[in-house]
Amino acid sequence: MKIKNILIFCLGLFAINSLGHEQVVHKAITLHATEAAYGNSPAFESFINIVSFDGRSFKSATNSMVDGSFEEDDGPKDLLNGGGGYRSLNHFYDPLGTTSYGKGLSDGIFSGSGPIGDKRELIGNNSFAWGSISNCAGINFLGELRLGKNVNTTNIWSWPNARGYEWLGLTATNQSERQANLDNMFRAVGQVMHLLEDTTQPQHVRNEQYLDNQC
Known about the structure:
Strand order of the largest sheet: 1-2
Radius of gyration: 20 Å
Largest sheet: 2 strands, antiparallel
Order of helices and strands: HHHHHEEHH
Oligomer: single chain
Strand content: under 5%
Distance between the termini: 44 Å
Number of domains: 1
Structural class: mainly alpha
């Protein structure tokens, strides 16, 4: 019993802040997950073999998914590249969220002086909605200090969007259009994988802001 208490005490001394995964970490997780799926899922391997006849190889599919997992954390430049804005504001899912502030992020970013408790207003959609609704609309957020406005945003890289790209990638009559849509499909899958990867990080599964001005 004494040894157990000592161990717990020592671990407490080395406690550190657990921040979100860096973008390069997301790329590494997605790469290994994709390789594992290809080696263990006959259905995935079969699909890759089918589309490879149309010019999309396992390597190109993997690259698109890895790039997607990286780009899901894009900041304000994404306002011009898919309309997602500060996408990471939509990467939180608090299963204990109340009906007042939902299950998305409402914890303030920089000021530390905003409303607290159930009076908070959402500043991001919950990650489940962000990833599972086609063209999911973001939450209009007017900004705090260094973080600018995040309004009129849309997620065109959700799971239903991926299915739409897949349909076009298999049915379009033009080869270049098929290839472009298959690339979009794999990228969207990578961006959804990013959301799943975020659920392994503590702050992402509770209403707790950790982001800096990079978002």
